[in-house]
Amino acid sequence: MFKMRYLKLAVVLVVGMLALGAVVIAQEPNTELSGDLEIFSWWTGGGEEAGLLALIERFQEQYPNVNVINAAVAGGSGVNARAVLTSRMLSNDPPSTFQVHAGQALNALWVRAGRMQPLNDMFEANGWMEQYPQGLLDLITDSEGNIYSVPVNIHRSNVMWYVPGKLAEWGLEVPGTWEDFLTTTCPAMQAAGVTPIAVGENWTQVHLWESVALGVLGAEAYQGLWDGTTSWTSEEVNNVFTTFAAVLDCANEDRNALSWQDAAQRVANGEAGFTIMGDWAAGYYLIDLELEPETGFAWAASPGTSGTFMMLSDTFGLPVGAKNEEAARAWLSFIGTAEAQDIFNPLKGSLPANITADITNGDLYNAYFQSAYTDWTTNAIVGSLQHGAVAPPAFLDGFGNVIASFAANRDASQATANAATLALQTGIGQ
Amino acid sequence: MIKNNGQVMALLVLLPSILLLGLFVYGFIGWTAYTSLTDSNGLQQLSGLPSNFVQLRNYSDLFNGSLNERFRIDIVNTLFFTLLFILVCLVLGLTLAILLDQKIQGETVFRTIFLFPMALSFVVTGVVWKWLFNPERGINSLPELIGLPGSDFRWFISEEQWLPFNWQQMPTFLTMFALGLVIYFALRWYAKKRAQWAAFAGAIALLLLMLITFDVPRQALPLISEEHGFNLALFAVVIAAGWQMSGYTMAMYLAGLRGISDDLREAARVDGAGEFGVYRYVVLPLLQPITLSAVIILGHISLKIFDLVYTMGGDTNLFIDMPGLNMYLTTFRGQQFGMGAAIATVMLIMVAFVIVPYLVTSFRTEDKR
Fold first, then answer.
1. Minimal Cβ distance to A393: which of B130, B319, B335
2. Domain limits at A288?
3. Which of A412-426, B14-28, B214-228 bottoms out in mean pLDDT, i.e. has the lowest?
4. Is the CB of A408 less than 8 angstroms away from the CB of B319?
5. Cβ–Cβ gap B70/A201 under 8 Å
6. Best mutation site among A77, A115, A203, A397 for testing chain B: the one with the most B CBs within 10 Å?
7. Do A357 and A413 fall within a single domain?
């Protein structure tokens, strides 16, 4: 009897251990990698930070011996972070990996200066060449075919937000073109005592400008601004500025006092009709203001841009001389997977860059992202100016000043001339 | 040369600080000045390429290039702001100090209250006043509490402008300023009977007057045609900065007032001066050195101001923009190191205009002792 009981216990123990072992083998924590892994970003608040922390947590389950240092620098849509990063790179003290926008923010600076390591082997080993859309791969590849960073998400810039109930109340429809907006929507809303379009501080004005430019020029000519086929001194660019001036006339006058959230909130409150902002605004409406998609708030492509997806993407790269390169490579291999992107993007409020991610899962990705994903896979893709895809930092900095001057004096021909000079000086379209 | 061990010892003791100062202050000033003459930028530095020497191109771009209107707005803003800010602080500070000097009850309490804002960071001041100046909900709506219509002045986002002038007139204004200085010194020398100096200055004044009459400065220095002026939005910054720093000016004046012995006042009263006369002829002249120190301190704060306008206006509100903010953004957002260094050098020169006369006078007074 006694022995029998022992035997049973032993069997249970053995089976239990085997089961446990199977679990352990399935999880397969890698204990070989160790040391510090310094991840540099400007994600310090809200869903962005939550997403990053969730990624780090999952990563550490897989690599328990790696000590992750979250070196995020707060403030100013990455201005401060980029200042810190530049001085660290100049003094040859790069972090293990850092956040950078896909496109010219990466290529015209870090890649051109030879400060990044190609990651082609990682993309090929993980089968990512087929898992990432070609348009996105083009933005992170140099002229020699080397890939330099791993995208974690996709945002759309040319989105116009509104409240459907209010719009019905005013008896108006979503304008399809800027022409419609300026001739029909704007006067009707002003007559009703509503601000037709809400806009905030300088960078949101540049953000609005890129949507106006895309709507007036069309995808091809907009793209041409950056590859040199559309001249900055042309009549079309002048038209963009005159349209932009008319749009600003339809906007709130206290723009310099508002953040993008303030502008978005005016729309939610019914004080303003529309606002144009990237799709991080969906997260603001959903989580901060607790509105229901499609009833509490709704969206459309900004006027004249339906069929075009103006994108930006956050990516992570591997600098030359990265500390603990092995761990950095493990991190990059991890964040490029569909699993990691399904952890990160629902929290950050963005589309996964990896097309094998579980996008159709309505629990992870809300109604906005379901619709955005359809556009992402079917629309023409162009890059955002304000968010680093099409122009280097030097151009963007100067262009912010051009827009600030223009908002004050509304001189389209001067703004066109200044933008052209700036493009020439910073090597745009060459 | 070296007379005794004492001097050797003194030199040895001073050497570390001389070396550190020389390297970390004057060395870096020199390095910045050199960088401002190059086209140094982020891409070039990261690629390990040498920067090209471009002489004064950055400076001519700043003062005359079509892309650098922001810098010229900054210069105009900073001049108006500095003048108003110093004026507000001096007048308020002196008034408060004189009131507190009347041996009132609870003086320490008031002194602490008035001095307290200085303990705050400009960042805190900026955020708080940004809320207070909110055009919809801030102090604009105060009159509504008692049933009056609210104000519609838009404070720090106001786009109104007074005293518009063309940037091309700047050389003329500078010449007029120089003329004013020369006439002032001529009169002073004349009053002191240093006739040949006064005559010399008079001649220079005549020359400058002729230059202005024939519009020579504007033609000699052809600048870009641009409208500038006094942005009303600056009132918001002046009030916030004045709120923070006038308590400090008050403390300086109060110390000065305490240093004036009652004997002098009594003597003035005996001579028949009224209370106003005592201040006009005895107290204020004796406070002159305090005023000078206050102007220096306030002047260099206002010329270098950054945090207050950054928190109030964000990174690009040109109506309250200042050179310090422009320098930061040009250098670190635009990664144009050469251009950023040029802005920094112009700021240094402006501050030098305030500091150097002060140093000269203080050296002179020490010599006299």
1. B335
2. 159-311+384-425
3. B214-228
4. yes
5. no
6. A397
7. no
Cβ–Cβ below 8 Å for A394 and B336: yes
Q: Which residue is associated with the tokens 């702001």?
A: B81
Indicate yes or no: CB of B316 within 8 angstroms of CB of A89: no
Contact of A156 with chain B, judged by CB distance below 8 Å, is answered with: no
The count of residues in chain A is 430
Q: By the CB < 8 Å criterion, does A89 face chain B?
A: yes
Residue A14 lies in a domain: no
**Are A209 and A131 in a shared domain?**
no
Q: Which residues pair with B51 in a beta bridge?
A: none
**Helix extents (H) in B40-141:** 42-46, 57-64, 69-100, 107-119, 122-132
Nearest CA in chain B to A409: B227
On whether the CB atoms of residues A205 and A255 are closer than 8 A, the answer is: yes
Distance from CA of A255 to the nearest CA of B (A): 8
The answer to whether residues A194 and A148 belong to one domain is no
DSSP per residue over B151-185, as a string? P---GGG---EEEEEEGGGHHHHHHHHHHHHHHHH
Provide the ipTM. Answer: 0.85
Look at residue B218 and tell me whether its pLDDT is greater than 90.
no
- Cβ-nearest to B43 among A109, A257, A409: A109
pLDDT one-digit tens code per residue, B49-72: 999 999 999 999 999 998 999 999
List, for residues B323-367, the tens digit of each pLDDT value: 999 999 999 888 899 999 999 999 999 999 888 888 887 788 766
Token pair, residue A121, equals 């082997």
For the domain that residue B253 is a member of, what is the CATH number? 1.10.3720.10
Claim to verify: residue A215 and residue A232 sit in the same structural domain? yes
Domain co-membership, A122 together with A203: no
Average pLDDT over every residue of B136-148: 85
| A93 CB within 8 Å of a chain B CB | no
